[in-house]
Design brief:
The protein is of the alpha+beta class. Helix content is 27%, strand content 30%. The chain has a single domain, classed as tt1808, chain A (Alpha-Beta Complex). The protein contains four helices and eight strands; from the N terminus they run αββαββαβαβββ. It has a six-stranded mixed beta sheet. Strands 1-2 form a two-stranded antiparallel ribbon. The longest helix has 17 residues. The protein is globular and about 40 Å long.
Length: 158
């Protein structure tokens, strides 16, 4: 199964789960809790407030070497957005890919996503834990703060 088929399947519409594909084209579903959606919305709002250019949006499907992964929130430059906006799953990652960890996710799984996003062009990967604490990564490793959005808080206000 590919991402276009997932998007077209009426049985997979409006599920209360985050859907991704693994490297064998199998559907992987992860239920999310309210805090996950809360932090996702806060991160999206903060990015829109701090940046006056590019696009910020949730649930971006990204084609990786291990299937289609869906970043919880992304920021993408206008130039890159023009290249991906009509795709089912982005062949190049947005510049910033953000994941909010859920109880069903392991840190190892999130770090694997980080690697996959960097392989397809992400410049930064951010991880929000269940307490709203942010970790920022560049392709060379962990960084103290975002280089693209240096004013982004290290803890999401609740």
């Amino acid at each position: 199964m590919n991402w276009q088929e997932v998007c077209a399947d009426p049985n997979l519409q409006d599920l209360p789960y985050k859907i991704e594909l693994n490297e064998w084209g199998q559907i992987v579903m992860s239920p999310v809790r309210i805090y996950h959606s809360f932090f996702q919305g806060k991160i999206e709002h903060l990015l829109q407030t701090l940046l006056d250019h590019g696009e910020v949006f949730p649930e971006c499907a990204i084609k990786t070497s291990r299937g289609t992964k869906v970043a919880d929130v992304v920021w993408v430059s206008q130039e890159r957005f023009e290249k991906i906006k009509d795709e089912f799953d982005a062949p190049i990652a947005p510049e910033i890919c953000i994941e909010v960890i859920s109880p069903n996710n392991t840190r190892k799984e999130m770090l694997e996503k980080k690697k996959l996003y960097f392989e397809v062009g992400a410049e930064e990967f951010w991880l929000c834990d269940e307490n709203g604490e942010m970790s920022f990564y560049h392709h060379k490793g962990k960084i103290k703060q975002s280089r693209l959005v240096p004013d982004f808080p290290k803890v999401i206000p609740q």
